[in-house]
Every structure is written in structure tokens, then in C-alpha cells.
Amino acid sequence: MPTLRLFANLREAAGTSSVDMEGTTVGEVVSAAAATFGPAFADGLAAARVWVNGDPAEAATVVRPQDEIALIPPVSGGTSVASGRGAPLDALSVVALAAAILVGNLLSLQWFTFAVVGAGAAWLWDVREVLRARGIGGSAIPGAVAVALAANGAYGWGMGGYAAGATLGIVVLLVWTVIDARARSIDGIAVGLLVGAIAALGAGGIVYVRLGDEGRVTFYLAIATAAGLAAWLVQRFAPDMAGVDPNLAALVVTLIVGLVAGLLFDVFTLTVAILGAVLIGLAFLAGRTLGSMLRWGPVMHTERAPGMLTMLDGPVLAAAAFFAAVVMFV
Fold this sequence. Notes:
By secondary structure, the chain is an alpha+beta fold.
């Protein structure tokens, strides 16, 4: 029988993450699951995304006994399809990580590095969980090692340590494919290398920036937080804000906050502050787009993608871009 893998609220409603179900098509398997697990589960199916062996599928898609069907309910407007319990937990997780980074920045370089490594590893774990649901194998461990190497390299030896740590991290990501058979597909290697490298570059880059001045990191955190909040608000109230694009809202807010921060804080000249805000804004949008593709398959910005830490998709890449801005313009 085909194996049905369940995630988020569907897993909660069914009381299991994996079950074998009779059926020759996706529709038959899903219908059998709805009859088995009851109304709460059936309600959650309305907007769930379906993959068969890692590829998007429809109700009419034929399945074989050895196939794996993954059901992931999206989160739209900040409220999960089957239940609202997931959304507060997701927001709380992001707030907790952001608070840890902010407090670490205020306390010391050591605490900041620790918080950044933890946040990077958590983001990688979250992305990997969603990718696994889509049938793309791999582990978050090599990416977390790469993050730790790049961040601690920057902390201990500055630019040279950052470069060496990031390079060693990429080596670890590639060598891991020899150890982990799940990551040996071309999809697993490409995605694992891409996500791990982005996380390592962002973590090491922001730690290097912190070596110079904690005010510069505060500048970045203010802009990234404002951009994320703007994008979330547009998604949350999208039905009442027709024609407003969350990406455009994030970019506009990024530029405004960068301008205000440049005027109020003496960490950059106004020109550098604006240029930095532009790079952060563009990288934030690129990170959101990448996260959407990794989590959904297609690019979708009107609905929150699966995962607890989707709001970090933009800031992770933006951290690397901010490092580049500091190196180029300061």
C-alpha cells in the first residue's frame, strides 16, 4: 500500500506522522485517510499541498504500493488550515531566536556568536524537515557544522577565519554525502550545499560585522525585523489589501527604516546606510523567494510556506548581503 506522510496540523489530527493507506490514486488514498481520521483531518485537507515521491501531485495522480505521498497543510493569513495552534508557536519560535540574537549582541561577542550559531542551526533543521516531506533527503547536521565553523572562524580570526571556516564548511557539506546515503541524489546534494552555504555565509558574515561595532548589527536587525514584519502584515491582511505585494512592502519598509536609521544613528554615513538598506532589502526578497521554492516547490508569497521558521528565510541571506555591504562601503 502507498505510504501517507502527514505534517503539521494533519499529523496532529491523525495522531500519527505516517500510515499505509489503500488506493490507486492520490484522491483515493486521501479520501481513505479522511474517512479514517475524521472531520478535523478532512477540514485540514482543503488547502493541503500534495507530493508523490517529492514531486507535486493532484488527486488523479496514479500511485503504486511503494510510493510515498506527503501532505503538508499551508498556513494562510497567519492561521493554520486545520487549527490555529501552529501559528502562535511559529511566531513565538521566531521571536525567541530574534530576542536571543539581540540580547547576545548587547551582551558580548561571545554570546552573540553562540546565538547566531543556534539560530542558523534551527533554521537549517526547519528547512530540512520540510524538504524531507517533499522526498528530498539529507540532514541538517553538516549545515549546522558549516555554520559553526564560519561563525567561530570569524569570531576567532576575523576575515581570514571566516573565509577558512566557510570553506571548510562547504567541504563538510560535500563529504557528508559519502556518509549519508539519503543525501546522494543530485537534488539532495544541490539543496544541501545551497542551504548550508547560505546559512554559513550569513552566520559568519554577521559575526564578522559584530567584530567592528555592535551598532552595525543593531542596524541590520532593525531593518530585517521591519522588512519581515511588513511582509507578514501584508500576508496576514492580504484579503483586505488587494493589490499590495508583500515583497514590495518589505522593500519599501527596508528603505524607509534604513534612511531613518542612517539619520538617527552614527554607525554609517547616510549614503552607506541607504546602500546597505537596499542590499538588505533585495537579499531579503531573494531569501523569501528561495525559501518559497524550497518549501513549496513553486514560488508563492501570498501564503505562508510550511515550516516553523519561514520568517527567517529572508534574514539569513540578507545577513550575508549586509556583510558584503560593510566590506565594500565602510
